Amino acid sequence: MLNNIGLPGLLLIAVVVLVLFGRGKISSLMGEVGKGITSFKKGINEGEKELADDSNTVETEVVAENDTTKDKV
């Protein structure tokens, strides 16, 4: 059903949305969407950095544990 919309249908939908909500409301909505996407990307980057830091900490602990085991032998 949605495959048959085409360019004229999309333009009609855009005009109807613009008339119903107004230009100011749409621009503020798009600004909020942009802020949400930016926040989401920032959260993903922070999560990846945290995981990398945690894996480095675990590797350091394993290396330190192996060094103390060698000293006991």
TrEMBL record:
One of its GO terms (cellular component) is TAT protein transport complex. The chain crosses the membrane at residues 6-22. It is a single-pass membrane protein. One of its GO terms (molecular function) is protein transmembrane transporter activity. It is found in: Cell membrane. InterPro entries: TatA/B/E, TatA/E. One of its GO terms (biological process) is protein transport by the Tat complex. Keywords: Cell membrane, Membrane, Protein transport, Translocation, Transmembrane, Transmembrane helix, Transport. HAMAP family: TatA_E. Part of the twin-arginine translocation (Tat) system that transports large folded proteins containing a characteristic twin-arginine motif in their signal peptide across membranes. TatA could form the protein-conducting channel of the Tat system. Belongs to the TatA/E family. The Tat system comprises two distinct complexes: a TatABC complex, containing multiple copies of TatA, TatB and TatC subunits, and a separate TatA complex, containing only TatA subunits. Substrates initially bind to the TatABC complex, which probably triggers association of the separate TatA complex to form the active translocon. This is Sec-independent protein translocase protein TatA. It comes from Sulfitobacter geojensis. The gene is tatA.
